[in-house]
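User: quick one - fold this with 6-O-phosphono-beta-D-glucopyranose bound?
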Amino acid sequence: MSYEQPINQSPIGGLENIRKADEPCTIVIFGASGDLTSRKLIPALYHLYLDGQMPDSFRVVGFARRDKTDESWRMEMRESLAVHSRTKSVDDAKWDDFAKNLSYHKGDLTDSDAYTRLADRLQVYQNESLKNNLVFYLAISPSLFGDVVDYLHDAQLLKRWEEGDEFWQRVVVEKPFGHDLQSASLLNNHLLRHARERQIFRIDHYLGKETVQNIMMFRFSNAIFEQLWNRETIEHVQITVGETVGVGGRGGYFEEAGTIRDMMQNHLLQILSLVAMEPPPSLAAEDVRGEKVKALKSIRAMTPEDVAERVVRGQYFAGTVNGESRMGYRQEEKVDPESNVETYVALKLFVDNWRWSGVPFYLRTGKNLPMRASEVRVQFRPTPNVLFAAQGDLDLLPNALTLRLQPDEGISLRFNGKVPGNSITSRPVRMHFGYDSEFGAYTPEAYERLLLEAMAGDATLFIRRDEVETAWRIVDDIRAAWGDQPLTNREFYAAGSWGPMAAEELLANDGYVWHNPQPAE
Ligand code: BG6
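Assistant: Sure. Structure tokens for the protein plus 6-O-phosphono-beta-D-glucopyranose:
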């Protein structure tokens, strides 16, 4: 496996303050009629524009098959913004200014003429950079990623970047990136025929979240925590990504993906790599991603016996989530009534390196859980309880640090405190930092940051080839061990519960319990 280095020697990494993309460019969105475009991409571009972070000159071209005019597409985007904007109201004058830069290109993704017409269309721009600095955003079915890149190349819209080139083209690829190691690697080879690694921006939208970026800031800018961030002091780590949604209208997709591919391969392993990585030598994209991939590569490979012991699948049956009744997964639209596809996964991993040897990392994620909440929970080793033990029944809990990723973003540290009074009684208490109270309610959407970085050419917050492939290797071992074994009773969970019994046992066997995120803890 190889990738080109150096990709970004700029000292400005992904953790710098939000900046402005300063080179004029055109963003072509493939899949302009899709959900992602109207719910996330256009609102994100509009907010970047409002905040003065778009280049002085830019264009957005929506590419899709349906019959639309520039005007009708703009109107559609405006309507959707009213629902999906992260601010309560939309500034109409600003929208009109922004919308002048939007245009619609009708075309079939598999028709080479559509790309030639696109190339002709870009030629009318006066500004050379607008014509030639191009971001191609592939918000389309993954089965078409390779074809689109071929057509772009044939229409001379995309070429491999060479040292000294004045202009650049970049390809932003949505997930899923492959469905196993082999398909991801083939897709990588395909894309890399027409673009260099530095031109490919593989999205994991979790990396666009402020709180996920803050993991590195928290660890590497605070002496008190990083000193403790190792096997000597940390007993275990839990990463929970809970969702209250079921699979909804995505049953067809989910039958193919399952939670291990949909969430674990990308979002949870990415969070783990940020928690476990060593400090990079700089914030340059290659340095950061190099350390993340080392952490992923240190994850101990699992034999089928390990998978049986350390990985739990789950599937929801009918239940109630926050007072709302939910059907079982097998009753969802486009789902096989006997499906064994998992909607929940919990697993225990070991990161076999000097820092983490022997420390279990427990990861879990699922649909139709009681809360939409993501957190990293670091549990420290207990103190030798010799001093206060003589006082009888003291409730001394080990220290725990919770990085709350969403919602109620914040960090809290639990420690034991003496209850005021004349007896020695203790109680766990917390120190808490909340984003809202500290910084106000300003939380940019993940896609704003990611689009900005793609325009600025900084790949720190995107997944490199070797990262995506290493993550697939881990997931492939698990899936191979599952084979086509049916789910057992211990693996079903009621919608609205925290998952199957087997997941509770996974921790109970080690003497632990899952920390269930609490509302605004
Ligand atoms: C997506 C998955 O990548 O992430 C979805 O495909 C999931 O199934 C979503 O619901 C969760 O993202 P967020 O930002 O809402 O936590």
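One thing worth noting: The pocket of 6-O-phosphono-beta-D-glucopyranose is lined by residues 175, 243, 245, 262 (CB under 6 Å).
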